[in-house]
Amino acid sequence: MQRGLFITLEGLDGSGKSTQLKKLAAWMQKRGSAPVITRQPGGTATGDRIRELLLDSRSAGLAPLAEMALMFADRAQVIAEVIEPALAAGQTVLCDRFTDSTEAYQGGGRELGSDVVLEMHRLVCGGLEPDLTLLLLPSLEVSLKRARRRNDRVTAQSGKDEGRFEAEEDEFHRRVWEKYREIAAREPDRVVLIEGDLGIDEVHEQIVEAVAMCLSEAHVYSVNSGRSA
After folding, report:
1. Cα dihedral across residues 96, 140, 51, 77: positive or negative
2. For residue 141, what pLDDT is reported?
3. In what order do the strands lie in the sheet with 93-96?
4. Where are the domains of the chain?
5. In 91-139, which residue ranges form alpha helices assigned H by DSSP?
6. Lowest mean pLDDT among 57-71, 125-139, 154-168, 203-217
7. How far apart are CA 134 and CA 143, in angstroms?
8. Cβ neighbour number for residue 26 with a 10 Å cutoff
């Protein structure tokens, strides 16, 4: 059986990843290639518990290396429980964040550097790399405004606090933003950079173009006919 494709969506909180992931999944389903959808951190029962610890504002004082280690513990679990079984079964996996996020947030934002993150990825992820990464990078100001507004709304409605990273100073997020650009420049064959303050449909069109090409090259389905190859 042909191994499935692993596609990740990346970007700052507030970049529109969640919206675009849903639209992409619906587009794929219409073409007979229903994906497995997961997220980082989270995606498993264990991962959701780690996510709560990592994103809760009450987790103050968490050391950067401890934060990174928790990210990779979560990643190891979702790889074993969700991602690898789906890929082995020939399914396409859409994942909201992967190691690029750790390199951007802990390597860039926390200033740990890329080397320690990439070494942890090598040890923990067993060489698993996305076939395609869609990096959404609107302006820093727009992303932060959206993310903070959304977190305030979610907290008011549900009492759930996932705003620990959004509470960081703007300079932290600028380092994250710049590290994402560095990753895109380093790996242009894997990372498709979708930059600027574009509308939802404009972003979706660029995503569809990139994903259709990736699926076509992998012979998952014919782009013209929309039928399984």
Report:
1. positive
2. 86
3. 36-39, 93-96, 6-10, 132-137, 191-195
4. 6-217
5. 99-102, 114-125
6. 154-168
7. 16
8. 11
Q: Where are the beta strands (DSSP E) in 73-158?
A: 93-96, 132-137
For residues 132 and 24, is the Cβ–Cβ distance under 8 A? no
Read off the DSSP letter of residue 35.
P
Query: CB-side exposure of 143: number of CA atoms within 13 Å?
Result: 22
The amino acid that residue 86 corresponds to is: A
Q: What is the pLDDT of residues 130-159, one digit of tens each?
A: 999 999 999 888 888 887 777 667 666 777
Alpha carbon distance 23, 15 (integer Å)? 14
**Are the beta carbons of 35 and 229 closer than 8 angstroms?**
no
CA dist 31 → 7, 38, 225 (Å): 16, 20, 9
Cβ burial, residue 225 (10 Å; 0-12/13-18/19+): exposed
Q: Which CATH architecture has domain 6-217?
A: 3-Layer(aba) Sandwich (3.40)
Nearest to 98 by CA among 55, 40, 32: 40
Question: Is the per-residue pLDDT at 122 higher than 50?
Answer: yes
- State which amino acid sits at residue 141: E
Q: Kind and range of the H or E element at 81?
A: none
Asked if residue 178 has pLDDT above 70, the reply is yes
10: which strand partners?
Answer: 135
pLDDT class for 219, splitting at 50, 70, 90? low
